[in-house]
Amino acid sequence: MMPQILFLFFAAICVAGAINLVLQRHPINSALSLVVVMASLAALYLLLGAEFVGAVHVIVYAGAIMVLFVFVIMLLNAGAEEQSQGSRIALLIGGPGVAVFAGVLMWLVTRGDKAIGNAKVGGMISSGDNTHNVASLLFKEFLLPFEVTSVLILIAIMGAVVLASRKES
Amino acid sequence: MVPLSWYLILSAVLFCLGVSAFLLKRNIITIFMAIELMLNAVNLSFIAFANYLGKLSGHVFVFFVMVVAAAEAAVGLAIIIAIYRTRETLNVDRVNLLKL
Question: ipTM greater than 0.95, yes or no?
Fold first, then answer.
């Protein structure tokens, strides 16, 4: 019973944070509610026995990426967003469209529920050290993708420096 | 123990909220945050399936998604700074020309 209660608790926080992200007008409020979503997602990862992913999620997402967002919001002194013609069109077309999309996704998941059966998730995956097993998988089976991502990060750093640098003219 | 479909439904709800934020928000920084929310929703279903199938490959995919998200955030925010420098606005409705 306890895992269900914990899941529902953190899922409620997660969805509330995401709804708040949509409703808030000021970007800094949206950023802070996204941090709430990240933190409760990390707790959900812990419930699924992914303790290393949960820790990395807090450090990389809630730590690094969100600090980057808040930094840019403050650097550009972003105010509350203004409404315009485009936002009304987006509300008219996007709102029902997203509702239909959500309905289709729910229908697919609940229909597949029979095929999945009474599958239960929770607890640790491997009996031994989870982090150790992830590391050996990452550095043996997924070594080439791992090296490719390091090249990707390098290119991203150079691209960010080139794009954000001030042009002399 | 929690049924797998609960996690998938939560993931779908988060993804759809991310899509709606992407469509409804006019601020370019908030649109970027909506993309991060969608990536997180997909990560949740990766972890849930990794637990369900008893394989750790899902965790490794989550790391790759995180790396791509970090790279995307760095480049995207640099582009946002460049846009703000030339146009003095963050509203996407006013950024409708590629060339000034």
Answer: no
